[in-house]
Each structure stands twice: as structure tokens, then as C-alpha cells.
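User: Please predict the structure of the protein below. I'd like the answer in C-alpha cell form so I can feed it into my own downstream comparison script.

Assistant: Understood. Taking the following sequence of 411 residues as input:
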Amino acid sequence: MKVAVFTLGCKTNLYESGQIIACLNAAGHEAVHGLVPADVFVLNTCAVTGEAERKSRQAVQRARKLNPDCKVLIVGCAAEKNAEQFASMRNVSFVKGVADKTAIVNEIENSGVDVEQLPSVFAETVFSAQERTRAFVKIQDGCNNFCSYCIVPYLRGRSRSRKIADVVEEIRRANAAETVLIGIDISQFGRDTGETLPQLFYALRGTNTRLRLGSLEARVVTDELLESLTHVDFCPHFHLSLQSGCDSVLRRMNRKYTTREYMQAVTKIREVFPDAALTTDVIVGFCGETDEEFKQTCEFVEKVRFADVHVFPYSPREGTAAFGWADVDGAVKERRAEQLGRVKLRLKNEFAASFAGVVCQVLVERKRNGMWEGYTKQYLRVYFQGKADVGKLVDVVITEPYQDGAKGEIL
């Protein structure tokens, strides 16, 4: 039976879809990633925003268009939040939440709803089906932060960490050119098991892959962590979650740091990795954000000199602490997003320009319009021509900013 597994949302969801595919193939099915014609569709849903939840419902309709007689099985955060919104939809045969997603493999011939209690410990044992170019390896799940705008802790449960030995085994088995360590909040890795991120990196010495970190909180950037990263083939790209560059807004968001503490982490990183890329997320128009508070955010983004910034207008989410608080006018949010977006584009271009004349190791990902595309260790997208192969590392000298990254010449 052909089964298409379609993923919405975060990289952790993508990893878990790989686990589902691995189990489906082991059970004798033909399982593939994506929304393609199939007998059965497994939709791994997202609910981080109302829009994400809406797209999860739309995916059912898209599956029906590909095969009107298909079966649709639903898993993930949108089902965890509200299973009934899917249970009544035509073609949907089974709905499952976040816990033990791979068990959906056993429900292909069944119908019903099964939203189990979220686990308190990291209990997954199935390795994800991986590509050889870039592997994503999940090291943690859940979140303890309870930011006032975020529904994720209510859907994913409390933080729980994977054992270092299991992480190392999966990375060795994946044998990818690059491995990205992901989770819902990997900054909390090991707090429930007595292990630490630095211990994980020391354990990864000798693995034949370059290593990249997923999103981090500034408070875990310590001398010990940075020292451990120098002992592996580390990609100096730090996605440090910011959300706002104004302390009063950070307090309303229930973020656990100040801009001063964030800047201290930035300084530490650049002392050890001078050419590191620092990227982040910023929410504009959060409840009650004034013009002055937004101005402070723009100034802080300029001060840090981010390589890239993902800008989001605030979207109220039912079930969060901030739901029902005084909202900022939608037009104001959009205007602020556009203004910060212009700053982001300038900073991104400046970051690319800073590599002109520098030889960078690029992981080749695809060829399009006659040019190869790939990423440096700093996650700078590079376009170049010449002889190369997908999944291989090549040395490229950067020449100039180009499109959303830089142009280069292969050595």
C-alpha cells in the first residue's frame, strides 16, 4: 500500500514524520514524504498559530483531491489541541495526538480517535528515515518555558531529553554530511536526565559529520558549551531566540532574559567564533507594544548585527496566557513587520558581503537554473557553477552577495 506522509510545521515534526516513514516501510508499505498521490495519507499537523491549524485542515482537502477514495490519518499538535475538528471530516479514518506518533502505523486499517496522555520521559526508540545530505536528529521534546504568547508547552508537554548514547548511535547510523540537532527547546537538554549539551558534544567527537545546532536560548550560551563546540566539526551558526529587543515587552512575553543578558551571550559567541552567523526570530506588535518599544527592538537588532531575522506579526492564540490581552492594530503590525523586514534584508546582505574573498566549505544540495546551491557552515546560501555532486562538501570562494545569499566560484 502506498502511504504519503505530509508534514506541517517545525523540523521536529519533519523528524517525527521520518520515524513514521521508517515504521511504515518496515511494515511492508511504500511510504514517501510529501503530498503526492497515494492510497493512504498521514498528515503530521501543526497548531503553533491559528493559520497553521487552518492549513492542517486544508491538507485533508488537498489529499482528497489527489485520491477521492483515500484514507486520511491525522497526527500531531493540531489533533492534540482539538481532535474533533478532524474526526468529522470526510475520508479521515483515524486521529491521534502527539504521543507515540509512530503507533499510527498500526491504525491504517482502523478508525477512531486516540489522543493519549503526553509522556513524562523521552521514550522514542525508532530512528528517523534520513537523507544522506543533511540529517535532523531529535534530542529533546516538550517545553517548560510557558511564554505568554505560546501554546506549544500545552500541546507538547514538559521538557524531556534523549540519552546521549542514543543520540550518538543515530548520528553514526545516519552517516550524513551534516547533522542538525533539533528539539522543541534543546536549551533544556539534559535537565531531566543529569546530562548536558557540552557532554553531548564531547561524546560526538570523531563522528564523520559536521554538526549544527537548532534554536537555542541565550541563557545556555556558556563558556563550557562554547569550549565543547571547538572539539567537533561544528557549524558556527547560532539561532538565538530573541522575540523582542525591548525589556518591557520581554517581561510581558514571560521570556527569561533581558537584552543585556542576550548581548552578553552574543559577545561570548563572537569571542570564540568570530565569523559565526547569528540568526533569530522577532515578534512585532505583541500585546500593547508601543512605538517606542518597537523602536528599541529595531535598534537592538541593528546592534547585534544578525545574519538573518525571521519577522512575525503577533497572532493571538486561544489557550495562551496572553489571549484576550489588548491587541495592537493589524495595520500597525504589518507596517512594523515591513519596517523590520527592510532592516533584516540590509543586515543579511551585509553579512553575505563580509565573506567576499573567503573560501567556505559548502554542502551541495541541488542544481537549479544552471547553478549549484548549497550552504556554508554559517548557513549562508551560496550559488556557484562548475563540477559538483549533491550531498558532497566543496570549497567555494565567495565573490559577492547574490539573491538571498552569495555567489561564489568553486576551487
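That's the full C-alpha cell string. The chain has a mean pLDDT of 96.
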